[in-house]
């Protein structure tokens, strides 16, 4: 491709609304342009990268036995109402009406659509298992679209769905696609982790997120410093490996703590460490009130609380509700003398404390020398807190460290969450009808492009991994008005093209400095510069990532390029 024929509008200045490197560089290099908030056009160079990622995804999904198809982006509300998600998915679902006032949604995901197709077409165990996928635009009405391609209102996604007659078959497909996903992100050159995650609005259980390690990531990953354990911080279990404090239990005593609201203020006022206090928070778990007790230095994990109760909704009780039930404000709650209609549950760490402090359920007062079992009873001890850096890894190997991550893929074991609601069943060997067991597997294709840029750039521009680079080689003729430079550059361009190498040829009538700056910004892996030694047949070859340079004779160029591409 000749650069003079390409829509490639590069910019020198950083766009004012671009906060992160991938957004800045993809706009500056002419790969994308914003149409409206959260909506982007992929210009030719951006489309080439997008297609490279799509091709890798297709190859690995096909190799894993999945069938590609395409489903409509416009979905009737009736399908969503069958599962109840029309009301529960939230404001991110873009809803519209047609001219006949029928309700539709722009597809945020396609569980309902594919389940409706399969229930109509598959009725026997003989046709299972089945895995299908599509690569298609998705739509979500993000409250605050930001970070360019990382959080848009329209984005390209690969979504796959599998259907099974038993959980053993689901496990096999899940493991196969876990491997396929790992292969995809490795082939894209990414440094990533597969982490235990929460299924959220998708339903089901047993799920992994594929997270690209990056400081601008919106999710926190908890991982072991010595093993392969990794989990989203919301899902990382905490081992019940505490040691009971030694010493004599002292007499319970109520003390005045005027104007001391926070755990740290109470700890400082009473002269003890934060870990020696007990924190109590009132939650509304579906239709019941639950008092959750943790150590003062720990934070309640509402995802774990939700999973413990298998609840639909978990939220902090309002101040009005708390005052009405507990007769005290937020800063004075505790597990002693709790009303009978409030359940008290506690994190594992609570049962190991000795002579702790806690709220007295009376504003401005706390108890000291509080001991579990003697002074209060707990309905159930469970893992209810967020894991912390320095905690023992749940697999018993090493300690926990934190890293930021960008989610680029997510796989779920849905079970019968959708098939039961939508009556998608099959007949088994005995002629009995059973709900199909499902899996769901997503990759943010356009999001992956941005994640690659976040990991592969320097102060001058992008440094694409060869597998997803828009071109493999960038040929620059520094002065196209000089016949020897133009002719040698065109000869190299045609030779490489004929050998199957993807080449961008900068044949523009621009200054050398402009061409070098644009080349660095675009980030093609290998640059061949035809300059002053063109009459001798020599060019300069530069590897974008390492900065390594060497002078080559034109007769050696194809060998060097071929070797470089073979090693990618």
TrEMBL record:
The enzyme's E.C. designation: 6.1.1.15
Which InterPro entries does the record match to this protein?
aa-tRNA-synt_IIb, aa-tRNA-synth_II, aa-tRNA-synth_II/BPL/LPL, Anticodon-bd, Anticodon-bd_dom_sf, Pro-tRNA-ligase_IIa, Pro-tRNA-synth_IIa_bac-type, Pro-tRNA-Synthase_IIa_type1
Keyword Cytoplasm in record? yes
Predominant location: cytoplasm
Domain observations: Consists of three domains: the N-terminal catalytic domain, the editing domain and the C-terminal anticodon-binding domain.
Write down the HAMAP family for this protein, in alphabetical order: Pro_tRNA_synth_type1
Name of the featured protein: Proline--tRNA ligase
- UniProt source species: Salirhabdus euzebyi
- In the UniProt record, the gene name given for this protein reads proS
């Amino acid at each position: 491709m000749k650069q003079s024929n390409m829509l490639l509008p590069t910019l020198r200045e950083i766009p004012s609304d671009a906060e992160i490197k991938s957004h800045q560089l993809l706009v500056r290099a002419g790969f994308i342009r914003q149409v409206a908030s959260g909506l982007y056009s992929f210009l030719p160079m951006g489309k080439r990268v997008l297609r490279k990622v799509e091709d890798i995804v297709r190859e690995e999904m096909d190799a894993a036995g999945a069938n590609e198809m395409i489903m409509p982006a416009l979905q009737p509300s009736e399908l969503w109402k069958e599962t109840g998600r029309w009301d529960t998915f939230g404001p991110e679902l873009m809803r519209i009406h047609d001219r006949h006032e029928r309700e539709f949604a722009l597809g945020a995901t396609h569980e309902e659509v594919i389940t409706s197709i399969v229930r109509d077409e598959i009725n026997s165990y003989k046709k299972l298992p089945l895995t299908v996928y599509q690569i298609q635009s998705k739509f979500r009405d993000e409250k605050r679209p930001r970070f360019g391609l990382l959080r848009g209102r329209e984005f390209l996604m690969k979504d796959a769905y599998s259907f099974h007659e038993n959980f053993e078959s689901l496990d096999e497909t899940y493991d196969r696609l876990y491997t396929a996903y790992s292969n995809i992100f490795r082939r894209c050159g990414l440094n990533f982790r597969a982490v235990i995650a929460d299924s959220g609005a998708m339903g089901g259980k047993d799920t992994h997120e594929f997270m690209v390690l990056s400081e601008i990531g919106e999710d926190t990953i908890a991982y072991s410093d010595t093993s392969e354990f990794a989990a989203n911080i919301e899902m990382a279990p905490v081992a019940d490996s505490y040691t009971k404090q030694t010493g004599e239990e002292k007499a319970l005593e109520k003390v005045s703590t005027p104007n001391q609201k926070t755990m740290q203020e109470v700890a400082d006022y009473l002269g003890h460490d934060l870990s020696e206090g007990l924190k109590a928070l009132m939650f509304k778990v579906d239709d019941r009130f639950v008092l959750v007790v943790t150590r003062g230095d720990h934070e309640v994990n509402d995802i774990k609380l939700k999973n413990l109760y298998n609840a639909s909704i978990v939220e902090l009780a309002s101040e009005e509700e708390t005052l009405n039930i507990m007769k005290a404000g937020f800063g004075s709650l505790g597990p002693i003398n709790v009303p009978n209609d409030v359940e008290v549950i506690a994190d594992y760490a609570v049962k190991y404390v000795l002579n702790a402090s806690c709220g007295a359920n009376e504003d401005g007062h706390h108890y000291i020398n509080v001991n579990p079992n003697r002074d209060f009873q707990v309905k159930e001890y469970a893992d209810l807190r967020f894991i912390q850096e320095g905690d023992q890894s749940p697999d018993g190997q090493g300690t926990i460290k934190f890293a930021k991550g960008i989610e680029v893929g997510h796989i779920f074991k849905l079970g019968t969450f959708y098939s039961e609601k939508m009556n998608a069943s099959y007949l088994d060997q005995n002629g009995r009808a059973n709900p199909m067991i499902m899996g769901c597997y997503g990759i943010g294709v356009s999001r992956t492009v941005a994640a690659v840029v976040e990991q592969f750039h320097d102060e001058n521009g992008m440094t694409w991994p060869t597998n997803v680079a828009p071109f493999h080689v960038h040929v620059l003729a520094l002065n196209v008005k000089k016949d020897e430079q133009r002719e040698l550059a065109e000869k190299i361009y045609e030779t490489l093209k004929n050998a199957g190498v993807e080449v961008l040829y900068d044949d523009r009538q621009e200054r050398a400095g402009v061409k070098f700056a644009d080349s660095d910004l675009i980030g093609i892996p290998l640059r061949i510069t035809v300059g002053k030694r063109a009459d001798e047949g020599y060019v300069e070859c530069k590897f974008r990532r390492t900065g390594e340079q060497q002078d080559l004779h034109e007769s050696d160029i194809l060998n060097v390029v071929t070797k470089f591409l073979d090693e990618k």
